[in-house]
Hints:
Layout: H1 11-14, H2 33-49, H3 54-60, H4 66-76, H5 93-106, H6 108-128, H7 131-142, E1 148-151, E2 167-171, E3 174-185, E4 192-199, E5 202-209, E6 215-216, E7 231-241, H8 254-288, E8 290-291, E9 294-295, H9 300-328, H10 334-359, H11 370-382, H12 387-399
Parallel strand pairs: 1-4
Antiparallel strand pairs: 2-3, 3-7, 4-5, 6-7, 8-9
Helix pairs in contact: 2-5, 5-6, 5-8, 6-7, 6-8, 8-9, 8-10, 8-11, 9-10, 10-11, 10-12
GO molecular function: fatty-acyl-CoA binding; flavin adenine dinucleotide binding; glutaryl-CoA dehydrogenase activity
Protein name: Acyl-CoA dehydrogenase
Region (Disordered): 1-25
Amino acid sequence: MSASSVPPATASTARRPPFDPRDPLGLDELLAPEDLAVRDTVRAWAADRVLPHIADWYERGELPGIRELARELGSLGALGMSLTGYGCAGATAVQYGLTCLELEAADSGIRSLVSVQGSLAMYAIHRFGADEQKERWLPGMAAGEIIGCFGLTEPDHGSDPAGMRTYAKRDGSDWVLTGRKMWITNGSVAGVAVVWARTDEGIRGFLVPAGTPGFSAPEITHKWSLRASVTSELVLDEVRLPADAVLPAATGLGGPLGCLNHARYGIVWGAMGAARACFESALGYAKTREQFGRPIGGFQLTQAKLADMALELHKGLLLAHHLGRRMDAGRLRPEQVSFGKLNNVREAIGICRTARTVLGANGISLEYPVMRHATNLESVLTYEGTVEMHQLVLGKALTGLDAFR
């Protein structure tokens, strides 16, 4: 075709925006101005309050000032933000997802703090609690004045919560709880723990205030992942609770599993935040790092890595956005959340590992975010449903056959 035969630019092509390496599919156009405002506010907060310190916190294995951070997140409306009333923001599912994206782009530990607070502890109280329980706990939790935790996993029962050994028995009008919970985010700093236990009536949820006799939450240390996060064991040694400590609207595994489904949705977005941070680090590095007299971004193999990372990152963001719209429409199924959690965490880990190869030896340094995100995602891959469990959820949905047992 000769140059003279090329058709002139139409009105539509004349309005084409320039290609943006940070948003190659133009996904920002899917977001309303309110969505962008939420995203940009959280991104700015994370850039100011987390990113300058996170490498040091991670190296030390601490999250100093967690109570202050919680209050700041409360002031942003990030705690229980998709819930309504009681000081909660009443945000959309997409806005909550964008918040998880930006927080995990800083660090998985910060997103975990918010997820456990809002999607597990606060959601459980909001969804299953009595009015008096909601009034007592939710306003302080939404403001970040009270931190909550969620006790389901046990030392010997992770993927099979139905086998939990923590037991609650009636004693007159009281309940007495005995058992242990493990790998509990926020546990040792929580003002209230939502603890799930077996009873003669089925699995029930209980609100256990910090300081209750017989209740302790020793912190778990010596972690190589989620180091900038508070992780604890919960120990319940004949903890006596009044009758009004039980969540009245939850009986059976449907209660805790419903909470986990809400939290897993946030992970679908959050994992892509970690992946984005690693991709952007690799992209910037490839354009400035020189080998053989030229930037490594000019070599074919490096460009192939960058292209593959960008594909999986933005496919994952499209998936997260789609699931968010379904949640806002009340049409999101648990199997679809499993679809998103399985894909996005798995692909995020792949992006982090590829980014590490672009950075070479520098990829293992805390001067760059890549190895920190990669090790964090190894925990995200496992918690709130392992790869295998989500594969079986989808397998059952596809075949109609239960392979869990």
